[in-house]
């Protein structure tokens, strides 16, 4: 539910709720119409933070000053340059990529790169999954790969989409919640752009 977009629903009430923004790791306010919508909807800020925000790796999030007007000096981890940088925090909300000192920032994030450079692959065969168009179970090979670098852009926030056809093609998608590339079966047509044949240029897992 943390990867779902904000959805006010089709009704016309104005019920204040909270939602999780996976793009920057923050919880924000919105007005819920009162019907339908999705599960990315919380009654309290604390509930949103507990369910979603605290599960994010703060070191890959962008700096967020927050909506308040304070000028509190804080530090954030800049993952591309692999260094801690200074920014002004407004004093409320924001995300976890916010530290009071450079030392605290470095202690939390500077070692994360060495861990992510170790590629871990785990291959398992889960129980057969029955397809609606067939009476025989179709085994799925599940490959879970820890991604080497953070995935950037809107494509990384898209949910896995197998498409609408009936082929069985192994592809990879970036799971924003777990920060990992995971395998899925693409049916051959439709779907979205969060679909890759490889994890990166060095590793081609089609041979597994």
UniProtKB/TrEMBL annotation:
Coiled coil: none annotated. This is BPTI/Kunitz inhibitor domain-containing protein. Residues 2-52, 59-109, 156-197 form the BPTI/Kunitz inhibitor domain. The keyword Disulfide bond applies. InterPro entries: Kunitz_BPTI, Kunitz_BPTI_sf, Prtase_inh_Kunz-CS, TFPI-like, TFPI/VKTCI-like. It comes from Romanomermis culicivorax. GO terms for cellular component: extracellular region. Gene3D superfamilies: Pancreatic trypsin inhibitor Kunitz domain (4.10.410.10). It is found in: Secreted, Extracellular space, Extracellular matrix.
């Amino acid at each position: 539910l943390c990867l779902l977009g904000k959805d006010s629903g089709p009704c016309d009430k104005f019920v204040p709720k909270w939602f999780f923004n996976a793009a920057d790791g923050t919880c924000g306010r919105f007005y819920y119409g009162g019907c339908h919508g999705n599960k990315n909807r919380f009654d309290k800020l604390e509930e949103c933070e507990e369910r979603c925000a605290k599960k994010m790796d703060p070191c890959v999030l962008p700096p967020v000053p927050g909506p308040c007007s304070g000028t509190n000096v804080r530090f954030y981890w800049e993952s591309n340059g692999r260094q801690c940088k200074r920014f002004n925090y407004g004093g409320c909300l924001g995300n976890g990529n916010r530290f009071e000192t450079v030392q605290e920032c470095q202690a939390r994030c500077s070692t994360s790169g060495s861990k992510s450079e170790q590629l871990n692959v785990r291959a398992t065969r889960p129980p057969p999954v029955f397809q609606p168009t067939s009476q025989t179970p179709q085994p799925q090979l599940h490959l879970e790969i820890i991604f080497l670098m953070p995935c950037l852009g809107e494509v990384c926030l898209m949910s896995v989409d197998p498409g609408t056809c009936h082929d069985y093609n192994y592809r990879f998608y970036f799971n924003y919640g777990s920060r990992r590339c995971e395998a899925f079966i693409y049916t051959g047509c439709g779907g979205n752009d969060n679909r890759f044949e490889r994890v990166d240029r060095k590793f081609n897992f089609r041979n597994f």
